[in-house]
């Protein structure tokens, strides 16, 4: 894990209601670079079961301004801890249906270990720090999703 | 689901609640009365012939909640520990929102009491205003939430806003500026639903100490529903940066309270 403090972080974050494509992030991270050796992406999707067995959809609320700031801060922390070449984060808000992608984290680096670890780190911090809240809709009614203790434990690993 | 007010023969009967456990129960109901803008103006000016309309309707709603068992045949008589009836005059839509909360520790739910309180408060508003407006309409009387009891909690689905307040992506929202030194407070997600408010401003002079703890104390003193802010799980950010109870507040700060985050 080489520190990366000198270089300017190639970091971009987006929060939007519109869906994003499965190819999201690749092109803007790669451009015409040939020094990237690894790209790791994580994509989170809406499951049709969570706190209740039949989730029909969910509404994601966020805190505009603080959300973008927090995501950028998390990406920059990763930039400092690992040797990275690009970080892209996109997170959707609004009404989503089962199967819809919610979040994409893409990390590019020269070697795979940095990209794997940084991607894992970003997701752990995103889940415990970024101001998003999920309200699940199910056949039994709607309810706010509760935080998970395991997410806190995961974030504490770093 | 079975209707417990029907016996094996399908006849109406009163449910025996003697074996049910006593739990803390609470129900919130709401409704509204639509009226002519001029009537609404007279009402908010206190210029209607029958006098203070809202105060009278509030008492009527509270009395009605206590006497629900006399009106609804199979309802038990309950020793309510708390009844509140609130009004919000909505000039834009031309109506008065009425909401009632009933609470007790007991063996049976209090939703009928809350619904009765709203209904009678609306009827009293009608009675108080009918001299000047006969077109008024009572509508949307409904149960909003109930807590406690063996069937668990219920909360009516509402269309939750995607974002809170006036903020646009990527910028700190300023909201309305205050004329005297104040802080602007936001409640997000589940917390907004629990306190029933998304934005408010409070004067700095209302705070005993000019920090987050002082703000929580001032809000809780204003209304007990803000006591949820002292819950350990409630998080706080000042100007969109996480903060704790001892963080200092200055004029025009934006303070947001929210539950633990659940994105990703």
From TrEMBL, chain A:
<dbReference type="InterPro" id="IPR036563">
    <property type="entry name" value="MoaE_sf"/>
</dbReference>
<keyword id="KW-0501">Molybdenum cofactor biosynthesis</keyword>
<protein>
    <recommendedName>
        <fullName>Molybdopterin synthase catalytic subunit</fullName>
        <ecNumber>2.8.1.12</ecNumber>
    </recommendedName>
</protein>
<dbReference type="Pfam" id="PF02391">
    <property type="entry name" value="MoaE"/>
</dbReference>
<comment type="subunit">
    <text>Heterotetramer of 2 MoaD subunits and 2 MoaE subunits. Also stable as homodimer. The enzyme changes between these two forms during catalysis.</text>
</comment>
<comment type="similarity">
    <text>Belongs to the MoaE family.</text>
</comment>
<comment type="pathway">
    <text>Cofactor biosynthesis; molybdopterin biosynthesis.</text>
</comment>
<dbReference type="InterPro" id="IPR003448">
    <property type="entry name" value="Mopterin_biosynth_MoaE"/>
</dbReference>
TrEMBL record, chain B:
<comment type="similarity">
    <text>Belongs to the MoaC family.</text>
</comment>
<dbReference type="InterPro" id="IPR023045">
    <property type="entry name" value="MoaC"/>
</dbReference>
<dbReference type="Pfam" id="PF01967">
    <property type="entry name" value="MoaC"/>
</dbReference>
<comment type="function">
    <text>Catalyzes the conversion of (8S)-3',8-cyclo-7,8-dihydroguanosine 5'-triphosphate to cyclic pyranopterin monophosphate (cPMP).</text>
</comment>
<dbReference type="InterPro" id="IPR012675">
    <property type="entry name" value="Beta-grasp_dom_sf"/>
</dbReference>
<feature type="region of interest" description="Disordered">
    <location>
        <begin position="1"/>
        <end position="21"/>
    </location>
</feature>
<feature type="binding site">
    <location>
        <begin position="112"/>
        <end position="113"/>
    </location>
    <ligand>
        <name>substrate</name>
    </ligand>
</feature>
<dbReference type="InterPro" id="IPR036522">
    <property type="entry name" value="MoaC_sf"/>
</dbReference>
<comment type="subunit">
    <text>Homohexamer; trimer of dimers.</text>
</comment>
<dbReference type="InterPro" id="IPR003749">
    <property type="entry name" value="ThiS/MoaD-like"/>
</dbReference>
<keyword id="KW-0456">Lyase</keyword>
<keyword id="KW-0501">Molybdenum cofactor biosynthesis</keyword>
<dbReference type="InterPro" id="IPR002820">
    <property type="entry name" value="Mopterin_CF_biosynth-C_dom"/>
</dbReference>
<protein>
    <recommendedName>
        <fullName>Cyclic pyranopterin monophosphate synthase</fullName>
        <ecNumber>4.6.1.17</ecNumber>
    </recommendedName>
</protein>
<dbReference type="InterPro" id="IPR016155">
    <property type="entry name" value="Mopterin_synth/thiamin_S_b"/>
</dbReference>
<dbReference type="Pfam" id="PF02597">
    <property type="entry name" value="ThiS"/>
</dbReference>
<dbReference type="InterPro" id="IPR050105">
    <property type="entry name" value="MoCo_biosynth_MoaA/MoaC"/>
</dbReference>
<feature type="binding site">
    <location>
        <begin position="74"/>
        <end position="76"/>
    </location>
    <ligand>
        <name>substrate</name>
    </ligand>
</feature>
<feature type="active site">
    <location>
        <position position="127"/>
    </location>
</feature>
<comment type="pathway">
    <text>Cofactor biosynthesis; molybdopterin biosynthesis.</text>
</comment>
<dbReference type="InterPro" id="IPR047594">
    <property type="entry name" value="MoaC_bact/euk"/>
</dbReference>
<feature type="domain" description="Molybdopterin cofactor biosynthesis C (MoaC)">
    <location>
        <begin position="14"/>
        <end position="149"/>
    </location>
</feature>
């Amino acid at each position: 894990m080489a520190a990366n403090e000198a270089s300017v972080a190639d970091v971009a974050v987006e929060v939007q209601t519109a869906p994003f494509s499965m190819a999201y992030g690749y092109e803007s991270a790669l451009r015409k670079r040939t020094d990237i050796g690894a790209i790791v992406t994580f994509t989170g999707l809406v499951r049709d079961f969570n706190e209740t067995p039949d989730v029909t959809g969910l509404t994601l609320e966020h805190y505009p301004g603080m959300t973008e700031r927090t995501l950028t801060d998390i990406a920059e922390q990763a930039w400092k801890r690992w040797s990275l070449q690009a970080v892209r984060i996109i997170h959707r808000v609004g009404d989503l249906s089962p199967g819809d992608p919610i979040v994409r984290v893409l990390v590019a680096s020269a070697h795979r270990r940095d990209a794997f670890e940084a991607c894992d780190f970003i997701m752990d911090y995103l889940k415990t720090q970024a101001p998003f809240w999920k309200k699940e809709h199910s056949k039994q009614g709607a309810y706010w999703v509760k935080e998970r203790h395991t997410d806190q434990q995961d974030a504490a690993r770093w | 689901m079975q209707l417990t007010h029907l016996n094996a023969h399908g006849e109406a009967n009163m449910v025996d609640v003697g074996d049910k456990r006593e739990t803390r129960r609470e129900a919130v109901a709401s409704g509204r009365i639509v009226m002519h803008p001029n009537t609404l103006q007279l009402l908010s000016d206190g210029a209607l012939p029958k006098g203070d309309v809202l105060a009278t309707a509030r008492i009527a709603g509270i009395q009605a909640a206590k006497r629900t068992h006399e009106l609804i045949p199979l309802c038990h008589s309950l020793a309510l520990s708390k009844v509140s009836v609130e009004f919000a005059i909505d000039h834009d839509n031309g109506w008065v929102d009425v909401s009632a909360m009933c609470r007790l520790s007991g063996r049976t739910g209090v939703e009928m009491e809350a619904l009765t309180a709203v209904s009678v408060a609306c009827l009293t508003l009608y009675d108080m205003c009918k001299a000047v407006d006969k077109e008024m309409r009572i509508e949307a009387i409904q149960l909003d939430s109930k807590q406690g009891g063996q069937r668990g909690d219920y909360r009516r689905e509402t269309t939750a806003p995607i974002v809170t307040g006036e903020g646009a992506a990527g910028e700190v929202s300023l909201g309305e500026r205050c004329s005297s030194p104040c802080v602007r407070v936001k409640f997000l997600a589940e917390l907004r639903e629990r306190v029933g408010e998304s934005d408010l401003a409070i004067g700095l002079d209302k705070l005993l100490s000019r920090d987050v703890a002082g703000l929580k104390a001032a809000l809780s003193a204003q209304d007990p529903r803000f006591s949820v802010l002292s819950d350990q799980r409630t998080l706080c950010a000042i100007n969109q940066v996480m903060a704790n109870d001892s963080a200092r507040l200055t004029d025009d700060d934006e303070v947001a309270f929210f539950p633990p985050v659940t994105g990703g």
